[in-house]
Amino acid sequence: MTAPEHGADRREVTRRGLGSVHDEPDDVALGADAMLEETHRGAFGEFGGDARGGLIDRSFRERIVLVGVTQPPHGDDETDASLDELELLVDTAGADVVGRVVQRRQSPDPATFIGRGKAEEVRELSVALDSDTVVFDDELSPAQQFNLERLFGRSALDRTAVILDIFAQNASSLEGKAQVELAQLRYRLPRLRGMGKKLSQQGGGIGTRGPGETQLEVDRRRIERRIHKLEGDLRAIRKHRAVQSKARKRTANRQVAIVGYTNAGKSTLLNRLTDAGVLVEDRLFATLDATTRRLALPGGETVFVSDTVGFVRKLPTQLVEAFKTTLDVVVDADLLVHVVDGSGPDPMGNIDTVRAVLTEIGAGSVPELLVFNKADRDDGARRLASRHPGSVAVSAVTGEGIDSLLSAIGDRVRSLTSIVELFIPFGRGDLLAQVHREGQVLVEQPEAEGMRIRARLEEGSIGRLRAFVVPDPTSA
Ligand SMILES: Nc1nc2c(ncn2[C@@H]2O[C@H](COP(=O)(O)OP(=O)(O)OP(=O)(O)O)[C@@H](O)[C@H]2O)c(=O)[nH]1
Ligand SMILES: [Mg+2]
Question: What is the pLDDT of residue 210?
Answer without folding.
Answer: 56
